[in-house]
Amino acid sequence: MSKRPHFRFIINPKSGPSSKVDVAARIKLHLDHEKFDHDIVYTDYAGHAPELARQAAEQGCEVVVAVGGDGTMNEVAQGLLHTETALGIIPRGSGNGLARHLQVPLTVDAAIRYLNHGHRSKIDSGIINGRPFFTTAGIGFDAYISSVFAGSKKRGLRTYVELILKEVRNYRHLPVKAVINGKTIETELFVMAFANAAQYGNNAYIAPMADIRDGMLDVCLVRKLDMFKALQLSYAMLANRPASADSAEYFKTEGVTVQTDHEMMHHADGEYLGKAKEFEVRMVPQSLHVVAR
After folding, report:
1. pLDDT digits over 235-247, tens only?
2. Helix, strand or coil for residue 254?
3. Short-list 139, 226, 136, CA closest to 178
4. Which has more pLDDT, 219 or 270?
5. Beta carbons of 241 and 207 less than 8 angstroms apart
6. Cα dist. 171→180, 189, 197, 203 in Å?
7. pLDDT score for 19
């Protein structure tokens, strides 16, 4: 590596809206080349980005920039955990939850120029059953929707909302036993969301009080849900405020364990991870450097 700080851009060529932007050309135009050197690499398959990010950190890159959606961001961040290399973000997904929480600009040109300012800070990360997450993880309905959304040819907020409205009526609530702050809760579960950041993405706030730097996990527990409560919860999420007590319950904790007799779906940063009967979720404070205030 040269003496100037080196940025490596990891681009997921499959991310982004239908109107493609030549990101490499925009980097050449807007990155401050007097201050920084850079190179660009592309992911070839799912799970490639963590390897590329780890290699960049080992080579002494100052910043590794994830160019893609929340899935790409998650993979790049995994490779940078507990290193001195910072995560930068050029959001190209449908939700962009971490970029929104960190107030990173959502357009390509502005996000590149934001990198030039060199703001650095540290954020927490979470782990669900060994898999890191940086915005939210969850079990129940949101994981189910993640699995359906992953198989959909259409992307974006409209598709996501349409899937929710279509599937919510038929979703089967399952009994769980959760331990939060030493208290055991046994209930039939609609969703349990584990939030490091405040929102899923698209400005849908599942945990408005979440602080990505406080070392604590914000848990949103939604028990059995009828259509009226679902509408209440949806309005609260879009209004960036806590839902009413009869729709959702909120907890701050360092970790949660959940057990169920029936396999339940789970996700991390919107990526469907499969099914399990036991879940362990915990925080890892101040574990990732980011380019953000």
Report:
1. 566 666 766 666 7
2. coil
3. 139
4. 219
5. no
6. 25, 11, 26, 24
7. 55
Angle at 184 between CA 178 and CA 186, to 5 degrees: 65
Burial track 275-291 (b if 16+ CB lie within 10 A, e otherwise): ebeebebebeeebbbbb
**CA atoms of 252 and 215, how far apart (whole Å):** 10
H/E element, 68: strand 63-68
Three-state secondary structure call for residue 14: coil
pLDDT at 154: 60
Q: What is the mean pLDDT of residues 106-132?
A: 96
Task: Please give the pLDDT value at position 227.
Answer: 58
Tokens of 22: 């030549």
Q: Position of tokens 């469907």?
A: 272
Q: What is the tens place of the pLDDT at every residue in 133-160?
A: 999 999 988 787 776 655 555 655 565 5
Beta pairing, strands 121-128 & 271-290: antiparallel
Give the C-alpha separation, 151 to 40, whole Å. 29
pLDDT at 105: 96
Which of 63, 119, 123, 116 is closest to 97 using CA atoms?
Answer: 123
Listed in sequence order, the residues at least 6 apart from 159 whose beta carbon sits closer than 8 Å to its beta carbon are 149, 152
The neighbour count for residue 260, using CB atoms within 10 Å, is 18
Dihedral sign (CA 290, 202, 160, 129): positive
